[in-house]
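Workshop exercise sheet. Pairs work together: one partner reads the sequence aloud, the other fills in the structure field after running the prediction. Swap roles for the next sheet.
Pair: D.N. / O.F.
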Amino acid sequence: MHSRTTPRTAEVSGPPRTTADVLVVGGGIIGLVTAWRAAQRGLATAVVDPAPGGGAAQVAAGMLAAVTELHYGEQTLLGLNVASAERYPAFAAELTEATGQDLGYRACGTLAVALDADDRAHLRELHALQRQSGLTSEWLTGRECRRLEPMLAPGVRGGLRVDGDHQVDPRRLAAALLVACERAGVVFHRDWAERLSVVGSRATGVVLADGTELSGGVTVLAAGSLSGRLAGVPEGVLPPVRPVKGQVLRLTVPRSHAPFLSRTVRAVVRGSHVYLVPRENGELVVGATSEELGWDTTVTAGGVYELLRDAHELVPGITELPLTETRAGLRPGSPDNAPLLGPTALDGLHLATGHYRNGVLLTPITGDVMAHALETGELPAEARPFTPRRFGTLSPATATAPATPRLSEQLA
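Structure field:
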């Protein structure tokens, strides 16, 4: 790692040139937590993003569901998810103390329910997998589920109670991380990164859309679903990240209807996953579709209808609530649904992207992992399975920069 330097503007002719130890491209929650942890370790850090604090966190529901998000074939990712979930209470307390902002962190638990015999059999299999993986969950009958959550439909056939799953408000999390970064001395360049600068066989920074050249001892690409669109990144190290569209609804629970739900409730309805996340402020988040439609972020009538229809089968009373917001966002999906963390085959370029549906959950451990990698050049043991090099990238010496669409292009 280069010695610490204070971000500065050099007195040279032409566009201004600034320098930092760590240059983070992307100001979503992953980029912000990386920048905050780097700055805490004494590294002069800068973030490049036209609207830091935005991104997928503005759409995400904020379920910290390491147990109920377990999928077959993802046991390696489970270890990282559980480790991050265990760090969340201390992480939330530290961030709140540093900023004075409430993150909406709640240890409320999750209830995953089945609405028919096939769903019930699937949940039974999931319960067995959870137990085999050393996780804690309790099987409940349909009657026991309704005793916990009286608003559930009478047809609920059974469910899993997971008290270890918690929640956080991603919008509050992003806002707090932004404040934490500012107080830690992180410099913000509110513009698009146009391309990566590579000198010889090393990444040296980025060029902004306005022509400004930014230099970084290490450049961290943390631009979510846009991470694969930064021009100048050699093909051999370009992250294999794709956008996965998700539509989400927000409703408001009037005081006359409270309490509506006491915990997150989720189910599979006609093959589609649906969840309802109640906030303490009366907001109810309903999501989410999963659509492979490229860069489309249109909210569709069909998406809204399907979410409301499935949520109504789960909790019939939801149709009485005011619908206050509809949003669509893009999850950064990777080939194995797991993040890409740490150094790439190109010297000076690190990745912190590809978190897919677990970005909010993995925020604490990503910050710790990236700070360690930035200081030492290596990943800690728990993150080594998630090295970007696992996809068999080419040597940067033989790679060529692709004709990639610019990161600054507006999405349709």
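Discussion prompt: The longest strand covers residues 242-252. What would you look at next?
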